[in-house]
Amino acid sequence: MSKTSEIITCKAAICWGIGKPVTVEEIQVDPPKATEVRVKMLCASICSTDISSTKGFPHTNFPIALGHEGVGIIESVGDQVTNLKEGDVVIPTYIGECQECENCVSEKTNLCMTYPVRWTGLMPDNTSRMSIRGERIYHIFSCATWSEYMVSDANYVLKVDPTIDRAHASFISCGFSTGFGAAWKEAKVESGSTVAVFGLGAVGLGAVIGSKMQGASRIIGIDTNENKRAKGEAFGITDFINPGDSNKSASELVKELSGGMGADYSFECTGVSTLLSESLEATKIGTGKAIVIGVGIEITLPLGLFAILLGRTLKGSVFGGLRAISDLSILADKGHKKVMYPLDI
Predict the structure, then answer these.
(1) Which residue ranges does the record assign to the Alcohol dehydrogenase-like C-terminal domain (predicted)?
(2) Pairing of strands 64-65, 8-15
(3) HEC per residue, 42-70
């Protein structure tokens, strides 16, 4: 029997419902279908979206196998997969890039119409390759990296250099790249500009480095965790704001640091609903641009009228505007060489 026809029993981190604990259990992983690959995970990391998934976002289907950041090695391939083979080292992506649809050809967005974000927790054919005691398991977006083995459509993985640092590869499959891409591809931060970054986790620190690479002269990091100050400074922030230290709002504090004008760009990386307006208010009247990257569990968010009425721009972003092949491959190559800026792009 070939490997591509075998069912694998392995361990995975499973959540059975909203508010229920995550448990490590034995599951069954089916072989890949024609356009799919089965991946043995080598390293995985955690993102706030994994936590949100246990609370019902992006879907309320359970049980769910968690994890969408990681790096692994292809264990077997479907018979229609021609660009990948057993032994290839890959990272998962939750958007694809067909390079042929209207969106891909326009290069105005990274949201491919042929291989879109999978919101249902199922494969493109609306089935699952994972089960537990005969019950179907859902996953986050296109994969489940907190499992020893997982199956993904081949259009949702990117082949990387096999010698790449596994920790680096894991982080660039979502968190860090989302922030970095938001500064590089989505906002297109201009040299000499002032930037405000709300939340200094992996996504926020990616936005910090991305802004620095783009030539921002002032990068203001905002976080309620005082321990993030030193980390932010190591990555490139020039100023740190802890809103808990003042009775003023974060946007007011940003304006004080920028001569009363506000930032040219802001990045909301927390998913905290009240910070949507704050991140917009922190930017300049008429020209300020706020990029929303963070994801919480609230589908409808409050937005102050005057925050956007006064000429500012509010833009949402998935994966920081990075295209799954064209752009992510550049970050993977630079990360492998441990060179992030200048990025030569």
Answers:
(1) 202-323
(2) antiparallel
(3) EEEECCHHHHHHCCCCCCCCCCEECCCEE
The string of pLDDT tens digits covering residues 273-294 is: 889 999 999 999 999 999 999 8
End-to-end CA distance of the chain: 47
pLDDT the model gives residue 343? 47
Q: Quick one: pLDDT band at residue 145, thresholds 50, 70, 90?
A: very high
Dist. CA 99–CA 34, nearest whole Å: 21
Confidence (pLDDT) at 254: 97
Q: Is the peptide bond before 162 cis (omega within 30 degrees of 0)?
A: no
Cα torsion for 333, 95, 18, 20, to the nearest 10°?
-30
- Judged against a pLDDT cut of 90, whether residue 313 lies above it is answered with yes
Domains within the chain, CATH numbers bracketed? 8-172 (3.90.180.10), 176-320 (3.40.50.720)
Tell me the H-state helices in the chain.
Answer: 48-53, 102-106, 166-171, 175-181, 202-214, 228-235, 250-257, 275-281, 305-309, 328-336
pLDDT at 341: 45
Q: Rounded to an integer, what distance in angstroms lies between the CA atom of residue 343 and that of residue 345?
A: 6
Instruction: Specify the pTM.
Output: 0.92
Alpha carbon 223 to chain centroid, angstroms? 19
The beta-strand segments (E) located in 218-323 are 218-222, 239-241, 265-268, 289-292, 313-316
C-alpha–C-alpha distance, residues 117 and 101, integer Å: 15
Q: 192 exposed, middle or buried (CB, 10 Å; 0-12, 13-18, 19+)?
A: exposed
